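tool_call: predict_structure(chain=1)
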Amino acid sequence: MAETYSNYVDGEWRESATGETVEVYNPANTDDVTGNYQRSSADDAAGAIEAAAAAADEWANTPGTERSAILRGAARRLDDRSEEATELMIREEGKARPEASGEVGRAVNVFYYYAEKARDIGGESKQASATDANLYTVREPMGVAGLVAPWNYPIAIPAWKAAPALASGNSIVLKPAGIAPGTARIIFECLDDAGIPAGVANFVTGPGSEVGTEVVTNDAVDCVSFTGSRSVGETVYDQATDGGKRIQTELGSKNLSVVMPSADVEEAVETVAGGAFGVTGQACTSTDRAIVHESVAEEFTEKLVAYAEDVDVGPGLEGHEMGPQASRDELEGTLEYVEIGRNEGATLETGGTELDGEPYDNGHFVDPAVFSGVESDMRIAQEEVFGPFVGVISVSDFDEAIEVTNDVEFGLSAGICTHDHTEANRFIDEADFGVIKVNEATTGLDLHVPFGGMNASSSETYREQGDAGIDFFTITKTVYENY
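tool_result:
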């Protein structure tokens, strides 16, 4: 029988006041229940926020070296449990083993990185306008940070929200995604073992309509960091700003890779396919548009189809290359867009079918889909498809490629495959996206530089990761000292 897990509130593991739990299951085998998690209420979330508020001042006044030691201790403990976290992520979210292992390693590195940042968070000294005076700034934590994380990177995103918030001296309340909360729970177990003071870090599972709404709207929460769908994110933004809170949202996108004639076609196929089919296409930075120059479009499409048909799909625990979609709803969403593409007149070259038989019968598996003949005004070229799906759009020249690139509401990650330096630099200048990749897949991020989108992909307020992560969770005080 699957284990039942509790919330972490005020330094204790507590059951929800509702007395209810929810099963979390393996999307590769729905008979495999990975755990029972609390179906918490708004009152449970309010209790966690109250604990965070009570602990905020003491944690803010804790020397950075002490905060650093705790984060470093949590990172070390998470590293020691990396295999456990990897196995759990494969079972809860469905990732292939190399993807899950890489994500756990990233979470470890995020905590180590911000442990060092905690040691030297400070302000700037400026030349005063008067004599016998000092003029400088200091950074102070915002207070209580409400963090709402998605299911598709169930340990990395909670890590890159929690670590900079804690390093900066904020107390936190994290609501993980309901379908994959387990690896985030491990983070809080590691923080607890590392000696984080009671109330500083809190973890509450439950429905977004109750727990998430309380985290976003409670008056004691000073800032909110949200990653998730555009529709929910826009509601979160309105709720948070109505309450006068600092807000950061990272939402969906419609990412793309441009392929120009100067590129090596086989390398371009590897780049596009890696961005499209990696993590089962369930990344906010996944490639689902390939904008290809007409002179190489036929060759590129043929090779991309061959690549897609060679992808090894199956349960991550059995060593397959691409795992299932994370839920039945996600699978049905991808299948729906395959039908939309057909109805719009695009050509389904391969894939886009639900897989059955062994080992697929009890899971949410689909084979990678490739469409050709896609036009920029089609829904499959405008709306995010959160699955292993890519549509090839043929263009006549570089200017048309830029026009199609920007012909969407979103703007998160955009790439170009080219050996022409002018094309690369024009693309960097002219693509309206927050992340630009040259001869790289649209997925994959370094943790020490800012991450975030433009247009409908983001609130465009603050970036995540790197120094930008500290910026969001701190506020600047300017000091005029006349001595």
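agent: The two ends are 69 Å apart (CA to CA). Proceeding to next step.
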